[in-house]
Amino acid sequence: MPANGSLILPGDKSISHRSVMLAALSSQRSKIANISNGEDVRSTISCLIDCGIKIDFSKENLFVTGGTFEQPASDLDCGNSGTTMRLLIGLLAGQGINANFIGDKSLSNRPMDRIIEPLKRMGLNIESNNLKPPIHISKSDLKGIDYNMPISSAQVKSTILLAALGAKSETKITEKVISRDHSEIMFKNIDVNIISKDRSIKVSPCDEFSPLNIHIPADPSTAAFFIGAAVLMPGSKLRVINLLLNDTRIGFLKALEKMGCSFNYYNVHEESGEKVGDIEVIHHKLSGININSSDIPSIIDELPMLALIATQAEGVTKVSGAEELRVKESDRINAICKNLKEVGSDIVEKSDGFIINGATQLRSGNIDTFNDHRIAMTFHIASIVSGEKIILNNTDCVDISFPDFYKTLKSVIR
Ligand code: S3P
Q1: What angle separates helix 82-94 from helix 113-121, to the nearest 10 degrees?
Q2: What distance in angstroms lies between residue 152's CA and the mean position of ligand 1's atoms?
Q3: H helices of 368-414, where?
Q4: How is the chain split among helix, strand and coil, in percent rounded to 5?
Q5: Is the CB of 83 under 6 A from ligand 1?
Q6: pLDDT at 6 over 90
Q7: Which residues does the annotation mark as catalytic?
Q8: Using one digit for the tens of pLDDT, what is the confidence trace for 44-54?
Q9: Ligand 1: does its nearest atom lie under 6 Å from the Cβ of 301?
Q10: pTM for the full model?
Q11: CA of 176 to the centre of ligand 1 (A)
């Protein structure tokens, strides 16, 4: 069954979280169009409402008026969303708020030492449950730091940047490999003094912010499932409209190009500092590739789908340097390997990735989604491209990032 037609997808999840948080800093009204309708971004919105930020919806837009944050009356529930918890801790620390952050079972097991350590260095009073949630922060005088990031993580970078807005002095962050840079781009949009050069970023404290007026481009991490399906199914011709094409987010497209795909791009332009454009995807025969640590940040969320694609490519695909995948919504290295083996793939699990020997015809099997939206979407695509009876438990977890996933897929695969 080929994938055909044009897709208009909801806005990028990372930019959506940041849009509401940054809009909350401004006392003027911000307008945000095409925000992600997933549960993760809803967690961010409801936490900010709990902090006294005024947020209204119209059919097309979200309007935010902030400027002053209030002490939340109860725990801030971040649900399944690591981005909500980590970035909001940075934001509220910078605004001098006392708060307690909780999450669901998955989030309660995710590491928070990565933000606790730099925030403590900045002078934040922060307590945790053995370096995991719940996290409690209390109003503290913050100072700027000069921080060399031990891991490549846009969440950690953004947490520090947000806290740095309320510090007494400038903050400098240096990354090993550049991670997604939406916070830096959006700081410029709200008139924060921020300078990025090579792998270093300097940000000055700030207490007056311009409002945002943004149309959020389509999420490349969601688009990856549709693009991957089109690449795998003969006869496909699929267009994704107004897709985010930021260099730090196109590792999946670059990997597919190395595997033998070529894409047509249309209407490529810049919007609110982000590169966007339409992409046209057709079926291609693929061969295996190597993906290593310097590629990982730009493809981190797309690795489950890439692994599925690699099972259909001739030869060996080796992914290394991806140990961060073990601390996502699930242990994604384990989830990918266990489930791909279940449906007949030749895959070997490594501590920091996996090795896949393709091409294999997938067979029927029972998939454990581990309640992880990206694992569920990957294996639903596996069932469609293979035509086999691949059965998933808890299919509803796709609501975390894309509640309309099944409906949208049906609209292009007929
Ligand atoms: C995100 C950064 C990535 C990514 C996550 C969203 C962000 O996490 O996996 O889905 O919005 O900053 P890390 O920065 O921890 O790798």
Answers
A1: 10
A2: 10
A3: 373-386, 405-412
A4: 35, 25, 35
A5: yes
A6: yes
A7: 301
A8: 999 999 999 99
A9: yes
A10: 0.98
A11: 15
